[in-house]
Design goal:
The chain is of the alpha+beta class. It is built from two helices and three strands. The chain has one domain. A hairpin with a 4-residue loop joins β1 and β2. Bound molecules: zinc ion.
Length: about 140
């Protein structure tokens, strides 16, 4: 998974207090994710009976359907994750520009970690739900 962030950062300096203040916001996020499904192969398929081959092929089709449902769940969660990152804000202040920016970045990083934890928790919960009895909408073969 690749994440590309567009952050807007604005730092101001107050001559009265001598403090720098940074406002940072995640303006856009691009997430690239590739899901690879590796299906089992049966080397002896060619030497099996027609009935056995048909049974195997049906099993494989069912398995593809199951995996497609898991992939669909994952992309739904990735969309939610992206939405939760958009507009994320951090604020910092300090005696130097760098310390103000670092504080703002630390706040955003903490929220980013929370969002990522939520993504993985939801992803794992979806997998468990799908693999419970009746969790897949495809009829058992
Ligand atoms: Zn499954």
């Amino acid at each position: 998974m690749i994440e590309i962030f567009d952050a807007r950062v604005n730092t101001t300096y107050d001559t009265k207090t001598g403090l720098y203040t940074t406002q940072a916001v995640i303006a856009d996020v691009i997430i690239q994710a590739t899901i690879t499904t590796t299906l089992p192969t049966w080397r002896e398929r060619g030497s099996a009976s027609q009935a056995e081959q048909a049974k195997w092929d049906g099993y494989l089709e069912q398995l593809k359907g199951f995996q497609a449902e898991h992939a669909k769940d994952t992309f739904v969660r990735l969309d939610q994750y992206r939405s939760s990152l958009l507009g994320l804000r951090g604020t910092g202040s300090g005696n130097t520009r760098e310390s103000a920016m670092q504080m703002a970045a630390n706040q955003i990083n903490a929220k980013y970690s929370e969002a990522k934890n939520t993504l993985f928790q939801n992803y794992n919960a979806d997998g468990k739900r799908r693999d419970a009895n009746g969790g897949h909408t495809i009829r058992p073969y």
